[in-house]
Amino acid sequence: MLREILVSLSKNSRLKNLVMHWKPARKASRRFIAGESLEQAVGVVKELNQKGINATLDQLGEYTIDPDGARQSTDDVIKIVDAITANALRANVSLKLSQIGLNLDEHLCAENLQRILTHASQVGVFIRIDMEGSDLTEKTFNLYRRMIENGFSMVGIVLQSYLYRTRKDVEELLHWGGRVRLCKGAYIEPVEIAFQKKTEVDANYDLVVGDLLAAASKPGAPRLSSDGRIPPIPALATHDNNRILNAKSLIEKMGLPKEAVEFQILHGIRRDLQAELAAEGYPVRVYVPFGTQWYPYFMRRLAERPANLWFFLSNFFRK
Ligand code: FDA
């Protein structure tokens, strides 16, 4: 219930204005956000790289409200790509298609995405398309397929194990050489299209992991690139110990090398897990979000774990 309320408040523009100008909230958001500027985020990525951990940089922003804003966001993503090469970072980029105009005009979004992918491919940086709410799932999936058909290979997508359609999507996109970050899903979706119980979402996660690892075990399947920028087919994004244990046991059973898969973790969550997986020799990538548009991202992180909200509120009232 609290999760539903917080996710629905993440779209409330009045609350957004209040929260974003509220000092304690800005301070609390810093647990999950690397900073407001690209320079700060680059600093965080350098520290991760020194510990043998890769990163994916995300300039926060979603549901851009006009075409000029979408073009500006496209330029911003290109700046991140350039910062990765200029600083020799072991990193790639994550973006949301609604940030570059998917909610406004599909043609504009395709044009913007194509511009990003053209530049990123030239310099060898991989782009990951985050998955948003189900109003955009089909459009996101189709645009991803179009980009692969247009010859772009250094691009991947995110799929969510709470959606019934995900296993079928995985099967389809593995045929066209897609790469998948698998997460559980951070939005609220109705029973008509999504599992509602955690046990069902988890069970589907494990099934999809099996499908992705089977694809990664085929001869010639891509491995993590030596510069840490291009991921293998499966990127398993979860902080859930049981999901990770299941994946590790499958990897061992299948005799897969560790670079055939990467684990992904959000900045500010379970640092112990980052270190543990990296020490075991698994490729680890931390999702490093930054920027001024942190409100919806912050609210989704609060929603995932009610304890985050109580921690935030109790600190506020203690002042
Ligand atoms: P689960 O929610 O079961 O949590 C397992 C454990 O992780 C918890 O017990 C707790 O210890 C810890 N934990 C989880 N969330 C926490 C939080 N917010 N604060 C503190 N501890 C927390 N979603 C989406 O819809 N589209 C996307 O594109 C992405 N992209 C993405 C990238 C990466 C790298 C990650 C790790 C996650 C995403 N997500 C996402 C978010 C994802 O869908 C999901 O909401 C969260 O990862 C939480 O789910 P877990 O798999 O961690 O499991």
Q: N-to-C terminal Cα separation, in Å? A: 28 Å
Shape assignment: globular
Fraction of helical residues: 40-55%
Total helical segments: 13
**Uncertain ranges:** none
Radius of gyration: 19 Å
Bound molecules: dihydroflavine-adenine dinucleotide
Give the overall pLDDT as a whole number. 95
Please tally the β strands and state the result.
8
In terms of DSSP E residues, the strand content is 5-15%
Overview of the structural elements:
With 319 residues, the protein is α/β, with parallel strands linked by helices. The protein has 13 helices and eight strands. It has helices at residues 2-9, 13-20, 23-29, 38-50, 67-86, 106-123, 137-149, 166-175, 198-216, 241-254, 271-279, 295-304, 306-318, and strands at 54-59, 91-95, 127-129, 155-160, 180-183, 234-237, 262-266, 284-290. Strands 1-2-3-4-5-6-7-8 form an eight-stranded parallel barrel, surrounded by seven helices. The two termini are 28 Å apart.
Indicate the topology:
Layout: H1 2-9, H2 13-20, H3 23-29, H4 38-50, E1 54-59, H5 67-86, E2 91-95, H6 106-123, E3 127-129, H7 137-149, E4 155-160, H8 166-175, E5 180-183, H9 198-216, E6 234-237, H10 241-254, E7 262-266, H11 271-279, E8 284-290, H12 295-304, H13 306-318
Parallel strand pairs: 1-2, 1-8, 2-3, 3-4, 4-5, 5-6, 6-7, 7-8
Helix pairs in contact: 1-12, 5-6, 8-9, 9-10, 12-13
The structure holds dihydroflavine-adenine dinucleotide (FDA).
Dihydroflavine-adenine dinucleotide (FDA) binds at residues 130-131, 158, 160, 183-187, 237-240, 264-266, 269-270, 287, 301, 304-305, 308.
